[in-house]
Amino acid sequence: MIEENAADRLDGAPHPRERSLLIGHGEAERGLLEAYRGKRMHHAWLISGPQGIGKATLAYRFARFVLAHPDPRAIPPAVADLAVSPDHPVARRIVAGAHPDLLALRRIAEAGKDKIPQDISVGAMRDIVRFFGSTAGEGGWRICLVDAADELNRSSANALLKLLEEPPPRSLFLIVAHMPGRLLPTIRSRCRTLTLAPLTEDEVVQGLASFDTVKVPVEEARDLARRSEGSLRRALEIAEGGQASFAAAVEAELARLPATDPQALHALGDKLARRDDAMFDLFQRAVTDHIHSTVRAELGAGARRLAPLSEVWEKIDIAAAQVRTFNLERKPFVFQVFGWLAEAGRRRT
Q: Which fold has domain 16-195?
């Protein structure tokens, strides 16, 4: 396991590029395989869905398969999925982050620094220009994987758009997005969208059992799966951080909305006041997952009902970034978040 400080890496768990096992999403995997085998292969795929359900794992799995099988016409008919042996030279180079024809755009700390950038900047996009400006190292495909597009700033999003509008020959863009509706419409329109559903409770339990570094009793795994809302990452965060009681308290207050209990919010704020970054991340993710689940459940309700949730999502994202950047007090953030959510709930009734 490579040691690196990055937003897409969870302590104690393998990075998605290191995962040879895909939990769930069999239909999506078969769709990618059929598209690659046939004549429907699009140059850009937008892989969307809630955070922590396996979007990046599927993206790396597809990239690995394409690089290991550069000629789709030569894929044996018996091949039914995108699995590539971990011992395959392509798989080993991807695990090491050293494949010349795969560029991953992520929020990762610079060498020798601890701070993870708040977004994927236009500086990172210059790497794409250099990457596609050179010949493929192994004479086949060149693949750019963005994890996650939600973290592009305006300049980097526009730079990506230019490449999507005029893709280089034999290029493939795999773009992971937690909330695709927040991306530029012009980026979405140039991608083929593949929407992944949250994992089932059984799949989350299966995923927890697949990690060598996480040993969770079956009953506890079931409880984590129920709390995870289909996100394996969230289940791992709760298991690894001993955060089950805090997660339950956050979920209880989210379920109470649009009503709020100031005493309960004070208790949540006190727990976050310890400057525990993992706890803060869990709080923010629980809130955003709640918003995402509400949006998914009301997709047919119309823009008027959904607009307040989109506005709150944006506010929370900006406020959380400010808390981290300026080391602000976290209890006021808790009250601010629940105040916004309560107001959004009242506006939607």
A: Rossmann fold (3.40.50)
